[in-house]
């Protein structure tokens, strides 16, 4: 069956995002899938700035701006209030960056998911605090140079692996968890559609390349997004009703090719690259193992 | 016409009384995180929700920051919302306090005044709420369980007034009110419904009118105008406070006299300004001193935000001296309340002002301490005095 992306646009022209911004495309696709009966809550994030200064707006749905740590709790309160008012079919959406999700917002996210509110939480993952000028976050991958893991005299970079929040959500038993990225819009929209069928918490992590913070030319955003999947660095999966499915099998694109497209990885030597290759392999093995385990049980 | 003073029909703790207040106010959403000594408020409300005595959703969240974030969100969607906290929990909410007031949401919250650590201490003190004085929330300090109940009802009326639209926190002293039973009159639901109509939030979230709530403003944008409007609304809210307090008196027969309560002030030469349950002990001492011919009185601060500056200037006119009792830790030149009193009097009065700090960490402020304070006031001592502390031997 041919799959088409909804034509409805809920994002107006005139937003203030950087050229090649992955997070902006993420929002556009999510809104196409969700439609007009949606309210979006954003914490401090690029997306708190992209819609423009008061009184301008970019989205044709209400947006609630909140403090950094509050997204999970705010969508909980909105959900309950709309249910009280009989608006059960209203989509309540948290749309937060990786800092607002993996770091400062993790507690309220985990609380909201545990309580089981019928909400969507989208983590647009640009792997760092990009709005504040490219600082490291818990979601920044091993090997990346950021402004708080600067190259210095010793060819420095972030020495810790990425905290993958989708994996945490899966471990917590959230009813719907998926990863997606902007190079695969059909896959992303299908996942949002699947999530919609679930009356409960839904978590989708969307890898959203950032030309400014990853140091690549803005016209390469889609390519970087695609290579992240094809190299096995960012596997796409869907976890639904306790069953995991890897939704895009990586094709043989080398990790090295993915890393070499982005100047944030310029500090790495051969050993470092091998470490990242090993990490990607092990993570894929883990996911495929989990896929077998959950599908057979 | 003023209603008759209603007879007591229940005996309950302050915490039960505010839970009953929230029920009578028909709150639709309650979110909270447990902290001693607030817990019995939210336990009572959870029980009421469980027993379907109240049509509300109750969500126990994973922190106070989240409790107020969820309450804020529900209120923004147009549902009358309520939360309660204390001490460190209130500090953890600090960011959301600003956000809720800045969005002009008329939330009502109960706060049980409790000391801040270290060292850990669960007893009463007002430092927790004094630390929130610049958050844009109105503040009421209650003296009795009845007042704690009634303040929830008056609170929603005041906060939801179109010319106010600011949240309100209503305080009880830890244990002295929160866990102590007193006789209370519980009003009938239909009387409350007549006094407090349901919430109709003008700018609630509406998909037919998509807006950004709290997006950013540049220096030349409306930022400064919005903040000035908040400050002016706070200042002018005294008119609504006075009007609602009189309407409450007319409907329920209990008179809280607005921003401050004056006790034995008519011909007083010296007075003490106090709040919360310390004002009750103060009134007892004033009564005793009056019996021995001393012309003393007491001013009880009900509201600290907005600050009753004009009311204090009027009430202290003609006095020979006034003292101010602070039950909080402040590193200002004088103290949290006394600073504001002095600021109100400046240019309007030249009476000596004595500052007292007492009752920290729940330490008893005894009758003899009040005699001592009045003695200092009569002597015209100015400055700051610690009352009831054990000086190193």
Determine the oligomeric state from the structure.
heterodimer
Low-confidence stretches of chain A: none
CATH architecture annotation of the largest domain in chain B: 3-Layer(aba) Sandwich
User: What is the rounded Rg of chain B?
Assistant: 21 Å
Number of domains of chain A: 1
Our count of helices of chain A gives: 10
Q: For this structure, what is the CATH homologous superfamily of chain A?
A: Thiamin diphosphate (ThDP)-binding fold, Pyr/PP domains
Q: End-to-end span of chain B in angstroms?
A: 60 Å
Strand order of the largest sheet of chain A: 2-1-3-4-6-5-7-8
- The tally of beta strands of chain B, per DSSP, is 16
* CATH fold naming of chain A: Rossmann fold
> In the CATH hierarchy, what is the class of chain A?
Alpha Beta
Strand order of the largest sheet of chain B: 3-2-4-5-7-6-13
Chain-wise SSE layout:
The complex is a heterodimer of chains A (297) and B (393).
Chain A (H helix, E strand, L loop, with lengths): L21 H13 L3 E5 L20 E3 L5 H14 L6 E7 L1 H5 L2 H10 L4 E6 L39 H8 L3 E6 L3 H12 L5 E6 L3 H4 L6 H10 L5 E5 L2 E6 L6 H6 L9 H27 L1
Parallel strand pairs in A: 1-2, 1-3, 3-4, 4-6, 5-6
Antiparallel strand pairs in A: 5-7, 7-8
Helix pairs in contact in A: 1-6, 2-4
Chain B lengths: L9 E4 H11 L4 E4 L6 H12 L6 E4 L3 H13 L4 E6 H6 L1 H9 L5 E6 L13 H4 L7 E4 L3 H15 L8 E6 L7 E4 L4 H7 L16 E2 L9 H30 L7 E4 L6 E6 L2 H14 L4 E6 L1 E3 L3 H8 L4 E6 L9 H10 L7 E6 L8 H12 L4 E5 L6
Parallel strand pairs in B: 2-3, 2-4, 4-5, 5-7, 6-7, 11-12, 11-14, 14-15, 15-16
Antiparallel strand pairs in B: 1-8, 6-13, 10-12
Helix pairs in contact in B: 1-2, 1-7, 3-5, 11-12
